[in-house]
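Progress against Task 2.4 (sequence-to-structure conversion) is shown through the following example record, which the project officer requested during the mid-term review.
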Amino acid sequence: MKQEHGATLTELIVVLFVIILFSVVAVSNFPKMARHFALSGAAYDLAQNVRKVQDLALSGLQTDDTIGAKGYGIYINLAFDDEKYYLYVDKGDYFDKYYDGYGSDCAPGGYGQSDCVLESIDINKENQGLFIKRFENLMASSVSINFSPPNPETTITPSALETGIVLGLRSEPSYEITVWINNGGLIKVE
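Structure tokens generated for the chain above:
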């Protein structure tokens, strides 16, 4: 006769204990993991938005609100607000390759106006506690990264060959992610 073997009560208790232990560890770390995921998402969104203005400069496409565009870029001013950055159109009377506007939105058909804001992005809007900590390779509180057609040529102001935009969490000062942009147009997230 064959004897059938099943799980013993001790084996079931051990398996149940292991499952409960892993569940407790995962649930206790969830808020921290969610904050880290939000920071990572904000960094990749920033990189994607830099690519967006780079693509606008590459395409040369102009719409009603970008008539007269001589370039596109991203502007960050930490002295003014460390939770926002701006995508802008460089269409001033002087082609200066940096943001010199005052935060006004782009108006349709505004040829010859000062630089204007295409979009304002608040990284703290959906995930509280995110902010832009500092810039790497720059001793400044603001940076303008401009892409001008047709190649597009990349200009970082103040002048630098490469800069890193460091994003962080207010609740965890040691955790940060950097988005690097160089004057060749390369964008990477570390």
